[in-house]
Amino acid sequence: MMNTILKTVNKLLVSVLLVAAVLLPSAAFAGETISVFKSPTCGCCEKWVEHLKQNGFAVDVHNVQDTSVYREKLGMPMKYGSCHTASINGYTIEGHVPAREIKRLLKEKPKATGLAVPAMVAGSPGMEGPRSDPYQVLLVKTDGNASVYQNYNGK
């Protein structure tokens, strides 16, 4: 009898842990909405939005004809430009920045404009495919200069 009870409790505990594992990524950033400004026809932008959602972010998508308008409005220098621009908690996110680095930015709260992955790098979130190139996530400072925030080696 006791063995049956323990098995039932174990199954219940495993079920609770599995539900928590699914819900915690969403709960970790509940209330953190990222606004994304992208072209209505850009497939890689859609994939990046899905990457954000899979990593617990609420995403408010704005399909726009010219993302450079929003890049300029949000203070991201054009030299760091990519195919989409986003905004979260006063930071600008430019290009295919991994969700992991956005979460790190929100946790560390550095004095900066935001993060950027200039251009459209093969292998970055939303740009997955047979090739994966090395790239850098840049921390763009308020003076327009940048430093390396994280290196990604590619494959």
From TrEMBL:
SUPFAM superfamilies hit by this protein: Thioredoxin-like
Signal sequence, start to end: 1-30
UniProt xrefs under InterPro entries: DUF411, Glutaredoxin, Thioredoxin-like_sf
Regions that span the bilayer: none
Coiled coil: none
Domain of life assignment: Bacteria
UniProt keyword Isomerase present: no
Pfam families, per database record: DUF411, Glutaredoxin
Segments forming domain Glutaredoxin: 34-74
UniProt KW keywords: Signal
Identification of the protein by name: Glutaredoxin domain-containing protein
Lineage: Bacteria, Pseudomonadati, Pseudomonadota, Betaproteobacteria, Nitrosomonadales
